[in-house]
Amino acid sequence: MKIAPNVSPAKRAPDFQDGSSIKIPSLQILNQDGSIVAGATVPDLSRDQAQKIYSDMLYTRMLDERMQGAQRQGRLSFYLTCTGEEAAVAGTIAAFQPQDMVMAQYREQVALRYRGFTTAQFMNQLFSNGQDLGKGRQMPVHYGCRELNMMTISSPLATQIPQAAGYAYGQKLKGKDACTLCYFGEGAASEGDFHAGLNMAAVHKSPVVFVVRNNGYAISTPCCEQFASDGIAPRGLGYGIKAIRVDGNDILAVYAASLEARRIATQEQRPVLVETMSYRLGAHSTSDDPSGYRSKEEEQEWRDKDPIQRMKNWLITQRWWDEESDTELQKSYRTEILAELKLAEQRDKPPLRDIITDVYKTVPSHLLEQFQELEAHIAKYPDRYSA
Amino acid sequence: MAKATLPEIGNQPKSSKMNLLQAINSGLDIAMATDQRVLCLGEDIGQFGGVFRATSNLQEKYGRDRCFNTPLTEQGIAGFAIGLAAQGSVPVAEIQFADYIFPAFDQIVNEAAKFRYRSGDEFNCGGLTIRTPYGGGIDGGLYHSQSPEAYFCHTPGLKVVIPRNAYQAKGLLLSAIRDPDPVIFFEPKAIYRASVGQVPEGDYEIPLEVAEVVQPGTDITLLGWGAQMVQIIKAAELAAAEGISCEVIDLRSLLPWDRDCVAESVTKTGRLLISHEAPRTGGYAGEIAASIQQHCFLSLEAPISRVTGLDTPFPLIHEKHYLPDYLKIFESIIATCNY
Fold it and tell me: ipTM value of the model?
């Protein structure tokens, strides 16, 4: 075992380092009005891909608005929006390849959309019906799809971070041109799993890109009560991981940083940390009301930096988009979402037997017994247990 | 046998209608007012007052030093609180949902529970109380519904307490905070707002380690804790209509538990049914059943019945089917009495 020599320059008096000499800058390419920041390099982005990214962001905004409304109408129990952070997620996922595994937190629905998750698939999960890939077992927004390499969402925070390090290490062993894209929030970065996961990824040189969505709030807790450090990016440096900070509302900056992040992960076979600076424009979830902990003025400040509007401004400047197409697209998305919502609502619920399957690969006898008891009981009181 | 429940009327002139959350809030308020060493910490519990509002107004009243938000790290919260307690403070830490207590498992099981024993009582963290909402019935699916009490009941050195209503919650919480050992205090979130009753506005304690006979009866003993008591009492009413007299006991303290109270009841009734939401295998009913059959073997007229959740993760869409509701308890009462 070789131990790395201490190569730090010698000092003759105690001189503590406080990190203030390291300033992590934030990458910005696009101004809010759609113009390019002076001196910035625009990443290579085709018209088709730019339109796809924009459309998926717009779709996600429509989906979130509609489903939040549906929750308020009592049509589903819970919902959680991505509002304000669409570019941070769309700009990252767009720089990755379909064979790359995505391990998300729960606010990244635009990544699913980008990969091809259909409106019906969203709705089937949200309404826990018999066509939900997750068999109606998890709360709304806990999507997952093997075909699209989207790992199923788990509510406990940060658990996916060390898993992503391991998944990526497995990809490396198989010699595939693939890496893992791992999303989480700045609040989740306080969990022990964050620290364990980053360190293991660094030590074992896992090809994983960690994307921390720094959106200012963990439910009600503002980031100034979450950490005393300069955000999350410097922590990457502490673990020996290359890190970058980007304006999360700037689609071009996020995309440019993500392209390079994937290149480092796959070609240099090492982890990368990307911190997207943005703002959770909506409530934490439909169970939350932000008026108790932040001001309307603060929210308005960020509404003025809307990432979708910013990208639209750029597309229009490029002559790749116009208001008329925008209105048309919004209208068609609204119609599609509402139609699929109604269909999903009416689909049959998963069969009762799904309650005992998948606990193990095969159902053990004790569970089968419990299920038979349950069936007999329900047969006695059919009305009480009907949907 | 159960004692020391209702406070003397003369000692508690003022009471008001509170729900379980308000009773918890009132208990925390009194604990902080009567002991400067008491402080509250946890995610979102500061100015916001917690996601369920159990700590509303406490930061305003006692300042940010004594009621504060922590970073989002359960292991950090538990370890920090243990350190505070070791130093002489009386921390009341909130874990936002019991489903999220597991990152803190090492700190609770290996540290808090063994602090006194391993040091020969040189050190202890007895001032520690961990409050956490548990249980199903809120469309919470796998990760907002679990009842993890049995994991902690398997840990010598901890005390485990679960109240069934507003009045019990305040009195038990005050005892838990003032108890010289670390206590895990599970709060039945399904009835946070639904459980409403008269609660003294002042200070009172309900002793730990003492069960309560909620309703006397002669044919069968029904035992539970927390929100499950609602289902048990409802089942007892159905059974009464069938001419079956149920003795209903709220265990309240799961560790250490009041075996004498339960054994005395079962000796009288000859039958025992235990109900909890957690899965059956390894659930706490198993421990109670083993202990009671040992102490009441000759009095038992039927096998001890367990009405529990299934041995599966907690499902969302089939929550209603999964839960051990009053009808399942009622059917089991009938089966046990007809054995």
Answer: 0.95
